[in-house]
Amino acid sequence: MGADMGWVHRLKERLPKALYELMELAYSWIAYRKLLAAAREFQPDVIYERYNLYLLSGAMLKRKLKIPFLLEVNAPLVFERSQHSGGLSLRGLAKWAERRAWRSADFVLPVTNVLAEHVAAYDVPAERIQVIPNGINKAHFAIAPAAAQAKADLGLSDKLVLGFTGFVRDWHGVDRVINWMASAAAPRHVHLLMVGDGPERAALEAQASRLGLSERVRFTGVVHRDEVPSYVAAFDIALQPAVVPYASPLKLMEYLALGKAVIAPNSPNLREVLTDGTNAWLFDASEPLKFEAGLSSLCNDAELRHKLEAGALATIDRLELTWLSNAKRVVALAQRSAVADAPI
């Protein structure tokens, strides 16, 4: 949860950045040897890997075994790591590794069309780029209680519940929600339910205390995965206050699966799933106070919330945003690759 992760974390803190990055690349050989041993026993038909920077073991195994290699991409990690965590020391090497991994795959599977543009920029042919958004397990969320029961279980029956799930960081903008709750625009019965934890928790709790909102802001801390649907079911308004421009947020899929009125930035990657006024309230993140105005509108318009709830609930089936649908697409792509690679 962002804390000390043991000896690897300590090693990273002590080594020169360039040396650590070289060690990341060198680990590809160790991972390759382990994968090769496993593959000789398991005899796979396809390699499916989630992309990580400097990890080339999947590409190496494809070259050795000559079987299809599908690569899931959740972020352009050269770009992302250049912006965060002190940046990259060996940026040229990192770009080479990213290009090598992406171009080695039979199919690259970015989670949004925006991310697909990053992949295409490395000269990956368009026919080998297949966008597959993140999804949900419908059965997992089918067990969630009705909203009224979920609220009652949490002692929130008389509250209008704003909810957020996941690992909260400063860029998520939850501090804006708390400031808005302290304003005259916010109804007095609004309650903020934060399902999860993260490095920003202490600051947000301190902010709520300063503003006299401690009784109206609740953090659950880390909860078991099986408990998440019961918490999300209690939301009246589901919060996606900010998003990185290429992401396919898992929390968003969960909000939609439970038919919640979503408020989110009007960004291209989210518009691949969300339509303003149909299954979400989309605000212009570049304009001050548009998010807060959206919160006020949603809180004061129950009819609008119900409309967005219905639209959200229909979105999962309409766009087939489930892991089962994703798995079927992956299998079909693997079969296409196997046919293409078959000897004549």
TrEMBL record:
GO MF annotation list: glycosyltransferase activity
InterPro entries referenced in this protein's UniProt entry, alphabetically: Glyco_trans_1, Glyco_trans_4-like_N
Keywords, in A-Z order: Transferase
Residue ranges constituting the Glycosyltransferase subfamily 4-like N-terminal domain according to the UniProt record: 8-135
Domain named Glycosyl transferase family: residues: 155-310
Domain of life of the source: Bacteria
Pfam families the record matches: Glyco_trans_4_4 (PF13579), Glycos_transf_1 (PF00534)
Tagged with keyword Transferase: yes
Entry keyword Transferase: yes
Protein name listed in UniProt: Glycosyltransferase involved in cell wall biosynthesis
